[in-house]
């Protein structure tokens, strides 16, 4: 057994540190209520129909091991999505828990405000600059992907103010993108369902066409031609808005919210040429793709991106503690530095940004990635993963598949010939998710696509198992919709 394989075996078998809380309590007093009942009485759940939740209740996850999680009924589920794209090293790591424990003993907390610093923040920032896909100058640590993208927007605006061009304020992103849940980050997001009833998006956030070649290509149009049309549409949007008013273009290398959708061939090459022509900053949102997911350490490497700013989170700490980072190149930092001097300070920050315990955990996770040669491992699993996706194309509900590394998706259709989608009332996504649960599989469905992003420690056999369980879920769903 080689060293990376031994490392994976240890991670998969590791049991996290256990703390005995003495069972359910309320205000330190024993409670006769179950966690299910207490959740119903007290918890608001994100991305959840809150009325229906009060009728159906939560699934209580009690523990995890490797690529599996267990509920309070003892049922085991294979997690095909690494929770929220982030749990790259699976569930349970005593090694990382020990690092967090030792870090907390040494320095429970200190801020990075007003020139203070500490070793973990410095070490992590240096390491991120060392592994960056393109030369970067400085790192701003934050707490989440949403915070990273929100902060990056402020940096972009600060940059153009520093150059005496405050009118360059508009941000362009793509339909199908997701960039976070703050008011600014959700304005970046190209999905109207995230905006309804919140009075969002803010003005000045512009969303260009979807990248879905299967859904949006014209008859006979090649992927390269489709990409050129998208690049031409981007240029037309810039000209319509006025290049002198456009600050930046935002892009996630693979669109998670669009259903783990990779870009069509030639897309980023053509788009970057447009951005360069009009001197528009390019921000790569690597929150999902960073740290091995696409078969390279960064999605930017997989697709030849040359960003001015990179945002990252999720797999930076393998989701074990909240942390994120913004990397900016020297061109951007030089202006930000000078503008901060002009204003007296760079007046931005979050209390917990660069938390010493979270930074220590992220450093250890990056060490584990090095020991596993994580990008090479993902690349070696890519053929098996893509084979499982391809194997579903004969199913009546499947229109097309696409993927890269260990991220990809399956297009769900009502009719394979016309590529028509199911009516919203059928809730095809909800049916597939529920039938997957019945088959012991946690699936995510987004934008009529099943989206996969399993933990990076997954084995070939477990990837095959995902394919088998997905087919069973699709069969059960097909039987349901035919009976409607």
TrEMBL record:
It holds the Pfam family Aminotran_3. Belongs to the class-III pyridoxal-phosphate-dependent aminotransferase family. InterPro entries: Aminotrans_3 (IPR005814), Aminotrans_3_PPA_site (IPR049704), PyrdxlP-dep_Trfase (IPR015424), PyrdxlP-dep_Trfase_major (IPR015421), PyrdxlP-dep_Trfase_small (IPR015422). This is 4-aminobutyrate--pyruvate transaminase. Its cofactor is pyridoxal 5'-phosphate. It comes from Enterovirga rhinocerotis. Signal peptide: none annotated. GO terms for molecular function: pyridoxal phosphate binding; transaminase activity. PROSITE patterns: AA_TRANSFER_CLASS_3. NCBIfam families: PRK06105.1 (NF004767). GO terms for cellular component: cytosol. Keywords: Aminotransferase, Pyridoxal phosphate, Pyruvate, Transferase.
């Amino acid at each position: 057994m080689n060293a990376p394989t031994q490392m994976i075996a240890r991670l998969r078998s590791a049991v996290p540190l256990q703390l005995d809380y003495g069972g359910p309590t309320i205000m330190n007093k024993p409670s006769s209520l179950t966690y299910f009942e207490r959740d119903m009485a007290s918890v608001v759940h994100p991305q959840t129909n809150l009325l229906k939740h009060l009728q159906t209740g939560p699934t209580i996850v009690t523990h995890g091991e490797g690529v599996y999680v267990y509920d309070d009924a003892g049922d085991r589920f294979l997690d095909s999505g690494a929770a929220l794209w982030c749990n790259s090293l699976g569930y349970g790591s005593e090694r990382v828990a020990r690092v967090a424990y030792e870090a907390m003993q040494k320095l429970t907390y200190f801020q990075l405000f007003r020139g203070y610093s500490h070793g973990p923040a410095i070490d992590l920032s240096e390491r991120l600059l060392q592994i960056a896909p393109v030369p970067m100058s400085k790192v701003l640590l934050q707490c989440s992907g949403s915070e990273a993208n929100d902060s990056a927007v402020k940096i972009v605006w600060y940059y153009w103010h520093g150059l005496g061009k405050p009118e360059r304020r508009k941000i362009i992103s793509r339909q199908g993108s997701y960039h976070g849940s703050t008011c600014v980050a959700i304005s970046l997001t190209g999905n109207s369902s995230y905006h309804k009833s919140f009075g969002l998006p803010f003005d000045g956030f512009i969303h260009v066409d979807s990248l879905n070649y299967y859904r949006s290509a014209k008859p006979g149009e090649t992927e390269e031609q489709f990409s050129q049309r998208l690049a031409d549409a981007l240029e037309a949007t810039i000209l319509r808005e006025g290049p002198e008013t456009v600050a930046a273009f935002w892009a996630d290398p693979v669109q998670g919210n669009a259903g783990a959708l990779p870009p069509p061939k030639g897309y980023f090459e053509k788009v970057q040429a447009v951005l360069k022509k009009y001197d528009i900053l390019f921000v790569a949102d690597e929150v999902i793709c960073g740290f091995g997911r696409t078969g390279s350490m960064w999605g930017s490497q997989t697709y030849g991106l040359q960003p001015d700013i990179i945002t990252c989170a999720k797999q930076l700490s393998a989701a074990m503690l909240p942390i994120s980072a913004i990397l900016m190149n020297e061109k951007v930092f030089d202006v930000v530095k000078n503008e901060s001097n002009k204003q007296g300070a760079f007046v931005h920050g979050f209390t917990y940004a660069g938390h010493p315990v979270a930074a220590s955990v992220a450093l250890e996770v990056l060490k584990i990635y090095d020991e596993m040669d994580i990008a090479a491992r993902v690349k070696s699993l890519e053929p098996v993963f893509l084979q499982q996706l391809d194997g579903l194309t004969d199913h009546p509900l499947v229109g097309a598949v696409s993927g890269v590394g260990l991220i990809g998706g399956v297009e769900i259709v009502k009719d394979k010939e016309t590529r028509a989608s199911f009516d919203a009332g059928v809730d095809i996504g909800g049916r597939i998710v529920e039938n997957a649960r019945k088959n012991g599989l946690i699936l995510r469905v987004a934008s009529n696509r099943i989206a996969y992003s399993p933990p990076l420690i997954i084995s070939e056999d477990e990837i095959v198992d995902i394919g088998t369980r997905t087919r069973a879920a699709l069969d059960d769903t097909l039987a349901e919709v035919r009976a409607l």
